[in-house]
Amino acid sequence: MENFDDKDKLIDQLSDQLAENFLTTLEILNRIVLMTEKFYDGSHSRFVAEKVERIGSDLGLKDESLTELKIAAQLHDLGKIGFSDTLLFKNSNEMDINEFKIYSKHPEIAYNILNVNPHFNEISKMVLFHHEKMDGTGFPYRLTSEKIHYGAKIISVVNIYHNAIFKRKTINQRNNQSIQNINAQTFLDNTKERFNNVMNFLYSKRGSQFETKVVEALLEIETAERRAMGEKTIIRLAVNQLEPGMRIAEDYFTSFGMLIAARGETLTSDSIKALFRFVETNELPMKILVME
Ligand SMILES: [Fe+2]
Predict the structure, then answer these.
(1) Which residues have C-beta under 5 Å from ligand 1, the single-atom ion?
(2) For the chain, does the N or the C end have fewer beta carbons within 10 angstroms?
(3) Does the domain spanning 234-292 belong to CATH 3.90.105?
(4) What is the distance between the alpha carbons of residues 189 and 172, in angstroms, rounded to a whole number?
(5) CB under 8 A, 24+ apart: contacts of 172-175
C-alpha cells in the first residue's frame, strides 16, 4: 500500500515538474520573440495572442485547442530570430527580392525549432502556416484553404490587422511615440484611417484569402473595443487601487526592455499581483495609466 502511495506521489511530483518545465520553455521562447519585436515595442505577439484567443473563443474553440492557439500566436514570429534590424523594421511589401527570400523563411525556422517537442505538434503547424492564404497566394507553400490549419487562419488575420494599425513608420516616430502618454481619443483619431483601410481590405478578401468568420469576428470585437475606448476615461491609479476588468492605457517596460503590461490589456487579479511585484522591485511606477 505504502508503495502505491509513494508511486502516486512521485507521479504527481513528476507531472508538476513537467508542467513547470513546459511553462519555463514557453517563457524562454517568449523572451526570444520579444527580441525580434523591437519595432513594435514588444507588443505584437501579445496583441495577436490576446485577440486570437477572443476570436477562437467566439468561434467555439475550447480548452486545449484554445490554449494551443494562444501559444502559437505568441510564438508565430519566433523564426525571425537572427534577422537584421533593417529586415525587422521593414514591412514585407518594402523588401527587395533577397530580403523577402530571407523573411519568407521565418515560418519554417520557427517550425523547425518548435516541432522538436511533440507537445508542440499542433502549435508548430499553426506557426508554419500563418502566412498562407486560402486562395493559394500565401507563403511558404502556397497552400489552399482546406490544407491550412484553422488556427493559422485566425493568426493570419490578426497579424495583418496589428501590422496595419500599430507598426511604426519611421525610427523617429517610434522614438517620439514611446515617450508620449496615451490619450484614448488621440489614439482613436490617429488610427481611424488605418483601421478603416485594413478592415476594408480584410473584408474585401473574406472568403477568398481569409476565413469569413474570422474577419467578421475581428471586425465585431475591434469595433466594440474602439467604441468602448472612446467612452472610457484615462486615469492614473496607484497599483493597489487597480481592479480586475480595468484596461491598461499605456505600454510599460522593465529596465531591461521586457514588456510588463501592454496597452489595451485587461487586468485580472493575477496580473495585478504581478504588477505589485514590479512596483516592489522599482520596475514599474507607483501609479499607472488605466482606462475605466
Ligand atoms: Fe510572420
Answers:
(1) 77
(2) N
(3) yes
(4) 20
(5) 174/39, 174/41
Superfamily of domain 2-231 in the CATH hierarchy: Hypothetical protein af1432 (1.10.3210.10)
Contacts of 127 (CB under 8 A, 6+ apart): 72, 75, 76, 78, 79, 107, 110, 111, 114, 152
Q: How far is the CA of 158 from the centre of ligand 1 (A)?
A: 11
Interval between CA 195 and ligand 1 midpoint (Å): 20
Measured in Å, residue 77 CA sits from the centre of ligand 1 at: 5
Common-topology check for domains 2-231 and 234-292: no
Q: How many A from CA of 154 to the centre of ligand 1?
A: 13
Give the Å distance between the CA of 104 and the centre of ligand 1. 8
CA 283 to ligand 1 center in whole angstroms: 30
* CA 76 to ligand 1 centroid distance, Å: 6
AA letter at 59? L
Domain ranges of the chain: 2-231, 234-292
Cα of 31 to ligand 1 centre, how many Å? 16
Total residue length of the chain: 292
Residue pLDDT tens, the chain, 292 long: 556 678 888 888 888 888 888 888 888 898 889 888 877 766 788 889 999 999 999 999 999 999 999 999 999 999 999 899 889 888 888 899 999 999 999 999 999 999 998 889 999 999 999 999 999 999 999 999 999 999 999 999 999 999 888 766 555 555 554 444 556 777 788 888 889 999 999 999 999 999 999 999 999 999 988 888 777 777 778 888 888 888 888 778 766 566 778 878 888 888 888 888 888 877 777 778 887 7
For residue 80, report the distance from its CA to the centre of ligand 1, in Å: 8
